[in-house]
Amino acid sequence: RGRFDGVRAYFHHPVKSGRAIRRAYNDYAVRNFTVDHAAELDKVLAECGGGSGLGIQVRFATPPGYAAFDLSAKFGAKPEGAAALLRAVDEAGAAPGLSFHVGSQCRKPEAFRVALALAGEIIAAAGVAICSLNVGGGFPVGYSEDAPALDLYFAEIAAGVAALELGERCV
Predict the structure, then answer these.
(1) What is the distance of C-alpha 156 from the center of its chain?
(2) Cβ–Cβ under 8 Å, residues 24 and 11
(3) How many CB atoms lie within 10 A of CB 115?
(4) pLDDT digit of tens for each residue in the chain (171 aa)?
(5) How many CA atoms lie within 13 A of 85 on its CB side?
(6) Nearest of 137, 117, 133, 3 to residue 55 by alpha carbon
(7) In angstroms, rounded to a whole number, what is the distance separating the alpha carbons of residues 82 and 76?
(8) Comparing C-alpha atoms, which of 96, 91, 17 is closest to residue 55?
(9) Distance CA 88, CA 147 (A)
(10) Contact yes or no for 98/57 (Cβ under 8 A)
(11) Most buried residue, 8, 92, 127, 163, by most Cβ within 10 Å?
């Protein structure tokens, strides 16, 4: 602390030890966390003394087939679980958000629009207005093959976010 006063720090890995959460909260003023199951939400709330003042994003699993490495096989709540978890975050008094990661080395920009449409379904099922949306990563790096231009990805993200009509509350 001190060196970067005024910055907003995030702890986006969906699986964290209680000690890591406590240190992030107390030593580094982290107030934004990501969870993908109820036990992780309970742990964050316990280590941070409740939900007030926190931003908690629910990471949801995205459909496979778009990336070289599908991270949703390991991380992310299924849509129905994500909706329930989003409601639990809201009920705990934290600022609710959604997060996803389409997978590493994603070579299909439309993966983001598909994931954002799924985010809309989760928001509707939860009945909760979100305060934040994290589109994760997954943008490809051209190693031995050419990767699609980043502009194609950003266009898909912009169109997908616009379709959600999230309002000014969501960052």
Answers:
(1) 17
(2) yes
(3) 27
(4) 556 677 788 999 888 999 999 999 999 899 999 999 999 999 999 999 999 999 999 999 998 877 787 777 788 999 999 999 999 999 999 999 999 999 888 888 899 999 999 999 999 999 999 999 999 888 887 665 677 888 998 999 999 999 998 888 887
(5) 28
(6) 133
(7) 8
(8) 96
(9) 39
(10) yes
(11) 92
- Amino acid of residue 13: H
Q: What is the pTM of this model?
A: 0.86
One-letter identity of residue 81:
G
Residue at token pair 């959604």: 98
- Going along 16-62, which residue ranges are E strands? 32-35, 55-59
Write the CB contacts of 131 (distance below 8 Å, at least 6 apart in sequence): 55, 95, 96, 97, 169, 170, 171
